[in-house]
Design brief:
Sulfate_adenylyltrnsfr_sub2; Rossmann-like_a/b/a_fold; catalytic activity
Length: about 280
């Protein structure tokens, strides 16, 4: 059982906690104030617990306006007092186009910029964040302490950068820390309910849990596809999630008999659509 898994790993979990808390205390005074960046996900839930044990009580949450209802309820239960309102997604999408895995303008507009604006009034700070090396290739070289390149006022520290996902959950169970219920509903990651980075299975689960939200996004994608003269099948397969389709998705397109233009050179500017508007069936 998971309870048994926690019991036999208590010593290791204590070591992880001790090391992380010590790391936070080493850097929490590097700037005039310290806070926790809380997203409602499992990793930020762990660092919130660790930071509180280290003596940091301030935390903030950025409401992008596109969060799952379960996440919003969980944030309230967690007692996060500072909620930063993000931008207007439905307004921004008209200007920037669809959010993509290779063009995540939404992260900057809905999360990074609102935090930058807030900190411009608050002043320099140390921010404890839940980034982990094992989350993605991009984060595998994450330094433990780094000045935020988008916002130099913010010094980001990552106390669980070397934790595995299993260790994250074992720690939450060991310390009996409540976590986002979406993880028990079939979600691997927690973010915006229409995020291009979510799995297709998670998109399907979203449709089951929140049909009205899913329907609004599906309607938007359908209208977009019609305007761009793109077959609905491409939307159904999730091709909209990239400006430039990766090899695995190009292989899927070939299996489906969908003709695609050749991959663009990296030096070329990508268009708003990854697909040839003159797509034809083979």
């Amino acid at each position: 059982s998971w309870g048994e898994a926690v019991r036999v790993n208590v010593r290791a979990l204590k070591d992880l906690e001790r090391t992380a808390v010590r790391f936070i205390r080493q850097h929490m005074d590097d700037r005039p104030r310290a806070n926790v960046s809380f997203s409602g996900g499992k990793d930020s839930t762990v660092v919130l617990e660790l930071a509180r044990r280290a003596g940091i009580t301030d935390a903030y949450y950025v409401d992008t306006g596109m969060e799952f209802p379960e996440t919003q309820a969980f944030v309230k239960e967690t007692g996060i007092e500072k909620v930063i309102r993000g931008g207007d997604f439905w307004k921004d999408i008209k200007k920037y186009g669809l959010p993509r895995k290779d063009d995540r303008w939404c992260c900057e507009r809905l999360k990074l910029q609102p935090v930058k604006d807030w900190l411009s009034r608050q002043g320099p700070c140390v921010t404890v964040q839940g980034n982990r090396w094992y989350e993605s290739f991009m984060r595998s070289t994450l330094p433990p302490v780094v000045e935020n390149p988008f916002n130099p006022l913010q010094l980001n520290i990552s106390p669980i950068r070397n934790w595995r996902a299993l260790e994250v959950f074992l720690y939450l169970w060991w310390r009996k820390v409540p976590y986002n219920p979406l993880y028990e509903m079939g979600f691997e990651r927690v973010g915006c309910w229409h995020c291009p980075a979510m799995l297709q299975s998670e998109a399907a689960r979203t449709k089951e849990l929140h049909p009205a939200l899913a329907a609004r996004w599906e309607d938007y994608l359908r209208t977009w596809a019609q305007k761009e003269n793109i077959p609905q099948r491409c939307v159904d397969l999730g091709f909209w999630r990239w400006k430039e389709l990766p090899p695995k998705m190009r292989e899927l397109a070939a299996q489906e008999g969908i003709g695609l233009p050749k991959p663009r050179l990296k030096t070329q500017m990508a268009t708003n659509s990854p697909l040839n508007p003159n797509l034809v069936r083979n």
